Amino acid sequence: MEIKIHRGTHQIGGCITEIKTQSARIIIDIGAELPTAERAEGAPPQIDGLTCGDPTCDGVFITHYHGDHIGMYGAVLPTIPIYMGAAAREIYAVVQRAADREPEPARPVEDFIPFEAGRPIFIKDIKITPFLIDHSAFDAYMFLIEAEGKRVLHTGDFRMHGARGRKMPAVFEKYAKNIDVLIIEGTMMSRRNEKQITEHELGAAARGILREHKSVFVLCSSTNIDTIAEFYSAAIAEERMFLVCEERYQLEILRIVSAASRSAFYDFNRRKIYVYGKNLHTTMAERGFCFIGRANAVTRRAMESFADNVLIYSMWRGYLDATSAAYDGYKRKFVENAIANGSKLQYLHTSGHADIDQIRQVCGVTGAKTIIPVHSEFPEAFCDLGLKGEVLVLRDGECVTV
Ligand SMILES: [Zn+2]
Ligand SMILES: [Zn+2]
Questions:
Q1: How far is the CA of 262 from the centre of ligand 1 (A)?
Q2: Fewer beta carbons within 10 angstroms: which end of the chain, N or C?
Q3: Residue 29's pLDDT is what?
Q4: What pLDDT is recorded for position 325?
Q5: Which residues contact 14 (CB under 8 A, 6 or more apart)?
Q6: What letter does residue 137 receive in the DSSP assignment?
Q7: Ligand 2 centroid vs 140 CA: distance in angstroms?
């Protein structure tokens, strides 16, 4: 079996991994590179048989809907099937419609083939089984790939401190032991001093804030479902408070989640959620609200109508940091303006990525003989973790036979 990381050995995002046997060739993730100060958007990758030439690839498997894992799907040759989790596919379709991309990608997201957790897919001599994993994207997966007598586990992005976190050790224990090659994300290798709280702790802090304040605005990603579910639960813990979505597509996403999950935590039908409009102002003032929005003019104007408000920044701090590669000047200006207008700013966020102890734990429980770090600016740091398996730091495009 051959493994090639086309992209992502020394960067966060833009991930593309290839696994090839005597008869089959599959790709895991087809990500766009995250925009940086120097680069607005990376170019589509040129990979023979996948994005150019005659199609020789048997399928593309998407771990989750974040752009750095799926953003370049439009470059995949049209006859190659793309596989994705069923609910993730629905959410991604809504996000794509809302983004109103010009020109529209030739392949509609609805054409992706949905898969289910625990149900293997056979691609010639490769057996690939998706398992749900804890991440800041809903319906995110890791993949167990079995072929030619080898077991390869691709974690995708993961963590152990979200809503699904407590279940994760048992999932690895049951399905992902005796791994020959572990392809594992290492985002936090370059953010080691960031201390993470659990989503549950975030929820407890949110309840504290919503108990004290009636006008609460939250800046967070529209697809960070665990965090939104915590704010929703915090709002409905108050007698009359309700959730307001800045845009209709946000509500559509939450409805998909409610329909896809049997868990009460992801049931967004427990109290009616409203889509923002000025007509809601009186009700918002009377009952108290938690507004889920983005750093844009709609949210800014809504905030101006509720002078005594709290702004919760629930995103990665790095976006506000001018020295960070992913610095977002627009977000920073938004936050600064809000403070200047009297908003009380609170920072309440937790990462979608595994910290060092969680990475160690997964390397240990899987018994991985070989460990290939990806999605990391500092993959060499894996060598210092005292892991039992051999760490293999690859370069983009380098091929290893296992
Ligand atoms: Zn990612
Ligand atoms: Zn992700």
A1: 26
A2: C
A3: 98
A4: 80
A5: 7, 8, 31, 32, 33, 34, 42, 68
A6: S
A7: 8
Domains and CATH numbers, the chain: 2-192+352-401 (3.60.15.10), 199-347 (3.40.50.10710)
Which structure tokens are listed for 256?
A: 């998909």
Give the global pTM: 0.96
Residues 6+ apart with CB under 8 A from 377: 10, 11, 12, 189, 190
Spatial distance between the Cα atoms of 77 and 138, rounded to a whole number of angstroms: 27
Q: Count the neighbouring beta carbons within 10 Å of the beta carbon of residue 155.
A: 25
List the one residue out of 273, 210, 287 whose CA is nearest residue 245: 273
Residues 245, 255: Cα–Cα separation, whole Å: 12
Phi and psi based region of residue 214 (left: phi greater than 0; alpha: psi -120 to 50; beta: remaining): alpha
CA of 352 to the centre of ligand 2 (A): 7
* Residue 362 to residue 19: CA distance in whole angstroms: 21
How many angstroms does the Cα of residue 30 sit away from the middle of ligand 1? 11
User: From the CA of 138, which ligand is nearest?
Assistant: 2
Q: At what angle do helices 168-175 and 356-365 cross, to 10 degrees?
A: 30
Tokens 């990525």 locate to 353
Ligand 1 centroid to Cα of residue 8, in Å, is 10
Q: How far is it, in rounded angstroms, from Cα 14 to Cα 44? A: 10
Nearest-ligand number for the alpha carbon of 12: 1
Distance between CA atoms of 368 and 379, rounded to whole angstroms? 16
- DSSP letter for 274, please: E
Q: Which of 308, 138, 123 is nearest to 214 (CA)?
A: 308
- pLDDT score, position 194: 76
Q: Which positions of the chain have pLDDT values less than 50?
A: none
Q: How far apart are CA 152 and CA 261, in angstroms?
A: 28
Q: How many whole angstroms from 69 Cα to the centroid of ligand 1?
A: 6
> Which ligand has the minimum distance to the alpha carbon of residue 140?
2
Taking the CA of 31 as reference, the closest ligand is 1
**37 C-alpha to ligand 1 centroid (Å):** 18
The residues, any chain, with a CB within 8 Å of residue 24's CB and separated by 6 or more, are: 58, 123, 124, 125, 126, 147
Pairs from 345-348 (Cβ < 8 Å, separation ≥ 24) = 345/310, 345/311, 345/313, 346/209, 346/310, 346/311, 346/312, 346/313, 347/312, 347/313, 347/317, 348/202, 348/205, 348/206, 348/209, 348/312, 348/313, 348/314
